[in-house]
Write a structure and sequence with these properties.
45% helix, alpha+beta, 5 helices, 7 strands, two-stranded antiparallel ribbon, three-stranded antiparallel sheet, 131 residues, globular, single chain
Length: 131
């Protein structure tokens, strides 16, 4: 069992998989972890000590974003001197990517990522049930 951000997760729950997507004419790669019942329980347990309900729910969402989008490639930030620096996989940057505008008719990144995470989670649950 791996310990991720103080949450006990099975190795299957914590193993991310790379997916490619094209946005605004650029190819990007997103490393997505499975969304399973164990993940939800672990995140909720981690955040249950937060007394204020609004802050607790915000912490749950932040932990979910941080956990499910493990890593990414193909995103940069333009610096004041005009150079482009590759973005690091911080929570702040993950949220920028998950909720960035996308072309009309394209699925928003958060929807695309959570759908992939759900697919991975269903595969794990089927394996655990022996199907």
């Amino acid at each position: 069992m791996l310990v991720i951000n103080n949450m006990q997760m099975s190795e299957a729950d914590s193993k991310g998989q790379w997916f490619e997507r094209e946005l605004w004419g650029a190819k990007i790669r997103l490393k997505i972890r499975p969304h399973t019942d164990n993940v939800i329980k672990g995140i909720r347990a981690k955040c249950k000590s937060i007394k204020d309900k609004e802050k607790r729910e915000e912490a749950v969402l932040d932990a979910m974003y941080d956990y499910i989008l493990e890593d990414f490639e193909g995103f940069g930030e333009k610096l004041p001197d005009g150079t482009i620096k590759e973005m690091e996989a911080t929570l702040e940057n993950k949220k920028k990517i998950l909720f960035m505008p996308v072309p009309i008719g394209e699925q928003p990144n958060w929807n695309w990522v959570i759908n992939k995470a759900n697919e991975l989670g269903f595969e794990i649950q089927e394996e655990e049930q022996g199907n």
